[in-house]
Amino acid sequence: MLLYLTQADETKMRVFHAIDRPIEELTVEILCRKAGISKPTFYRHFESKYDVPIWFARFMCLETLDKIGRTLTWEEGLRGYFEIGIAELEHLRYTRAAPDMYEKIIAAREKHRCRIIEETLCMHGVEVTPLLSRAIKGYVKVELHFSEERVEPGQSQNIDEIVTLATSFIPPVLYDALKEPLAQA
Fold first, then answer.
1. Model's pTM, two decimal places?
2. Which of 26, 56, 122, 126 has the highest local Cβ count within 10 Å?
């Protein structure tokens, strides 16, 4: 997937790529040196080293999953998400070691994904009933669990297989409502 990075995103990505061992073992100074930036530049973008993986998780979603039903199909969004994830697997694994940070990322992603899916459904003219809202929450939990499993060693990295499996988890009512992006609907 081709990504268009702003200058700020390029800087943040350099910091993310500087994570070459468990994040607890790294200092801001080490990250800055490896990323080729100053500490003031680091703190202009992040409050702490633990904000780096939170930014990356948001960035991945913004560029892929959040566009499902808007400008991308389910398959396109999932494919892009897992392509980025697999390409960045080494760095992602190093950010999972801090349990408190990991739980914070998962909780924030869950809340964000539910909100975006509900907003997108409204854009499609779909009423988000309490039952549909529960289906969205259930799906998002599965989506997050499945995507987190992909980071584990030994998991398949075959994109077609991953996208097919991930698509099979989507409740039909949700899949059908967002099957066609707004740009094509």
1. 0.88
2. 56
**DSSP state, residue 181:** -
Integer Cα distance of 51 and 112 in angstroms: 16
> What is the full per-residue pLDDT of the chain (185 aa) written as tens digits?
556 788 999 999 999 999 999 888 999 999 999 999 999 999 999 999 989 988 998 899 999 999 999 999 999 999 999 999 888 888 888 887 567 777 877 888 899 999 999 999 999 999 999 999 999 999 999 999 898 887 777 888 899 999 999 999 999 999 999 999 996 65
Dihedral angle sign, alpha carbons of residues 120, 123, 124, 128: positive
